[in-house]
Predict the structure of Spermidine/putrescine import ATP-binding protein PotA.
Amino acid sequence: MNRENAVEVIDVSKNFGSYQALSSVNFEIRENEFFTMLGPSGCGKTTLLRMIAGFETPDTGRLLLHGRDIVDIPPHKRRVNTVFQSYALFPHMTLAQNVAFGLENMGWDKARITARVGEMLERVHMSAFANRKPAQLSGGQRQRIALARALAPNPEVLLLDEPLSALDLKLRQAMRDELRTLQRDTGITFVFVTHDQEEALDMSDRIAVLGSGEVQQIGTPLQIYEEPSNRFVADFVGETNFFEVDVLKATEKTATVRTPFGQVISVPSPTQVPVGKATLSIRPEKLNLGDQVEGVDFLAEVVKKQYLGGYTHYLLSAGGVEIRASRRNASRESDTIAVGSPVHVGFIEGSARVLAA
Ligand code: ATP
């Protein structure tokens, strides 16, 4: 599908004093997509979000909203709204008044405002609470009102700055579904900022992984998890093992390497790695354990295990190298591997990645 871009970030850099917060950042956010900026604290994601909102200006580069340069357009003239972690509701107003606030400022007439407020409260399942004040609500309910208020004027883009992080775990999970549904139903482009990889994988159409003020990778959740383009992404999103390997030969897409366990294998790689040392990345759940295993096979010793109900995590050791594996417990009898005993470890070459060291 060839959709218009809702947002284009072109070569954007930003320094705070001598500190470079963003360095030549480039990406596009497509219309109607749920786009997430994911990264550790300090990677620059909030700065980018604030730039799209208009609260921050890039030192160099351009920002386009539906093809139009917005760098010189003040925040209130951009059709962009933000939902904050702290809700930022007006405490002295009822919920209906909170949702109506932006519409009044935009000069909507009374009847249209009443209809829109009713519609928005219904969308976030808060119609019964219209006349309450924010103090009478739970955190999740406040966040729903903040969403209704931000969506009411029908913005072109909704920015969400870690909106779930103040909520408890159960509610956070429920709100993920609600946010996703709200995005699909309204068709508004959502730009979501989080440091929580699970939130990002669960909700997003596409994710931009940010690290050290740069875009490390952009892709669908599946691409980010299964095909990390570098060590930073493999490490930040999900668990992984990193093994040092010797590269014997390499092309743009594959590297033939000697593993620390003695085998010579051919493994996909996102970029051509030079002959010499590189890193083999393999997720714990891609390692098969047992008496007979599929694929590349080596022997390890079970050092420790951690039973977690649905899964068991294992710490293994082979030739002085630590290996993390995890297995789903499909039945009560699944968890049969004993600490201190030898076990075969196997993996399919295609499930690993060779990354530049
Ligand atoms: P967090 O999740 O902790 O909010 P973040 O990825 O959103 O992190 P930003 O808030 O974008 O990161 O900040 C990026 C870097 O720029 C940080 O090192 C931060 O300290 C710095 N920074 C941000 N705003 C300012 C400012 N106004 N003055 C000085 N430094 C700033």
Summary: Residues 110 and 296 are 70 Å apart (CA to CA). The longest strand covers residues 5-16. DSSP finds eight helices and 20 strands in the chain. The mean pLDDT is 93.
